[in-house]
Amino acid sequence: xxxxxxxxxxxxxxxxxxxxxxxxxxxxxxxxxxxxxxxxxxxxxxxxxxxxxxxxxxxxxxxxxxxxxxxxxxxxxxxxxxxxxxxxxxxxxxxxxxxxxxxxxxxxxxxxxxxxxxxxxxxxxxxxxxxxxxxxxxxxxxxxxxxxxxxxxxxxxxxxxxxxxxxxxxxxxxxxxxxxxxxxxxxxxxxxxxxxxxxxxxxxxxxxxxxxxxxxxxxxxxxxxxxxxxxxxxxxxxxxxxxxxxxxxxxxxxxxxxxxxxxxxxxxxxxxxxxxxxxxxxxxxxxxxxxxxxxxxxxxxxxxxxxxxxxxxxxxxxxxxxxxxxxxxxxxxxxxxxxxxxxxxxxxxxxxxxxxxxxxxxxxxxxxxxxxxxxxxxxxxxxxxxxxxxxxxxxxxxxxxxxxxxxxxxxxxxxxxxxxxxxx
Length: 424
What we know:
- The chain is an alpha+beta fold and about 425 residues long.
- The chain has helices at about 15-35, 50-55, 60-65, 85-95, 140-155, 170-185, 195-200, 215-220, 230-245, 290-295, 310-320, 340-355, 370-380, 390-395, 415-424; strands at about 40, 45-50, 70, 75-80, 105-110, 125-135, 160-165, 250-255, 265-270, 280-285, 300-310, 330-335, 360-365, 385-390, 395-400, 410.
- An eight-stranded mixed sheet has the order 1-5-6-11-10-9-7-8.
- Strand 9 and strand 10 (about 280-285) form a beta hairpin.
């Protein structure tokens, strides 16, 4: 017997009993973003490696340790996309959609990072991203956050998540803070965890994200980023807060929140939950006004966020917030005995679907005894089972059995679609 081939570690199948939840989540997102005027964009999963080195940052964990990178047959370095923002910028700029224009875009699809697989975090994972271009004021930052809050409301998650907010200012302000932070932390280098010691040289702001207790203890005496924020950045942040308050979107300011990618500036935010253990962040984003120019385009203000589908599905399942209507179910199961009845069952099933294409009509295929077909009808958990045999065909009727009560009655074949539509 040939050896079975297994899925690659950290790259999981999404099976039929799970996919209905994904469809529910994706449809809810699509409806919400559409109501705010966002249009979908799609781009390849493979990009030139330099796109992520320049966009995400060469000293980030993603580029240094996590990317799936390979040379193609022409020796060009390609990478499976580890995140969506850089690809979205590349696609929109290449198509001439950005300079002196306003764009509201969203996307969904798989991303790839080589890291230790754990619950809700995989090497192939899926994200939904929402990006806005051409608007530099705080109102679009607020719109994105309010949009995400409306999504949580639609999903029943709003009371289970918390918005954390911060401003990391302009690049000049961050550089001044970095100098002060490095000077302070260098005195305590031996007390920092290994990753933080490495980041002290390459990416000191990420040390603020460290979960190591010793490092966090050292950080208690560190300089504060808010002390380096200038008037422009503070005014932007104040305006954002005023709009959120007017729209009754609660938040807390987390001065340690910096985000892990180099392209962020001014506004950064995360939606976090206490229901997923250490994987607390379900949505994160911020402003990245310099990224388009950094990737070769003309200066364009931008802001966006991304959310992990796996984590959101896990959260919905943990909190038991998946509505019954979101789960796959069969409305009508059609049985048939005999050649004439089999042909008639096709016509009948199609006539039911024609009235309402959302109805799930499962027609038995493959023959079999009446008893075996009824067993399959029971297993399908359909609301109604239609029974067709030669006797019914001769009389121009079928039997309709209500599977919840066991009652059945004869119904004219022509009246079946209307009857089913009325009952469902």
